[in-house]
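Chain A, query sequence.
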Amino acid sequence: MNLVITILILGIIIFIHELGHFLSAKYFNMPVSEFAIGMGPKLFSHETLETTYSIRAIPVGGFVNIEGMEVGSEVEDGFNSKPPLARFIVLFAGVFMNFVLALVIIYGMVVSGGKVIQNEGAFVGNVMEQSKAYNILQKGDEIVEINDREIKKWDDILGVVRENIKKEGDSLNIEVMREGERVALDIEPYFDDERGQPIIGILPEYEVEKYGFVEGFKVTGTTFVEIFAQTLGGLKMLITGKVKADEVSGPVGMIKVVGQASKGGALLLVWLTAMLSVNIGIFNLLPFPALDGGRIVFVILELLGVNVNKKLEERLHMAGMIILIGLILLITMNDVTNLFIRR
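Chain A, predicted structure.
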């Protein structure tokens, strides 16, 4: 099942990316011979007078075959016959669509989910089953005092717990307002290994307020920028060696990532789709030969009036493609190792 979900997520992202190239090429009247999702042998194809639409056997990648990209091509209205600005738009359109997909998903989740507003006071909204406070504290209890310290707001709780709990077995005297009565309770917190601190195991009471139309856009933009920055940060760590190459996951490793995300439900998978769309968009923007970003570099040079030897450019893109295929194979081998050997 995880494999199917992974193929579906990657398929949507790739389709949107290639759709950007396809629609922009059609807008500038560039002939497109094939629009393909996947690589390798064709599983399904539909031919029209101008374009063949196909799904291929290997569910990784895709392509839009725009005529006239080869050196010396004489195809009428071909890619290289168009002005540099038109070619720039066609090359950038795939990345642009990846970013649009992410923005649409984020906006939908922001608007449908709303913003969480914590109620005033220290009201208990939920008690974790694994905590020792389970069946002692109740939803709706207002914590008013801990170890003779007055509690006015939720943030006061953590500081008091840290001050009074130094080791396993230490307990707290907590006073709460419950149905109009003041109730005294003794509760033993537990140590959270991930946070490295003692916690009672309770969550605050909150309300969900829907975002307005404009506010939803603002939050979406801020969230998108944060994801973008995190992706660039991860890329920087990889380049500087702070992240080892064998820790990088490819399409096969995505199966494990999707499996973990699926435990969190459909919304987490949708969120993962948005993040991957941004990641794939940024990857394609890298100024490396054969990638959209590498081709864009040469178009920008042309826009600036720098004459570029087309045969040299084509050789560089070919070399870049060979290197990329090699990297994909290495990452895939690492993914397979992690999935089946290092379990």
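DSSP finds eight helices and twelve strands in the chain. The mean pLDDT is 86.
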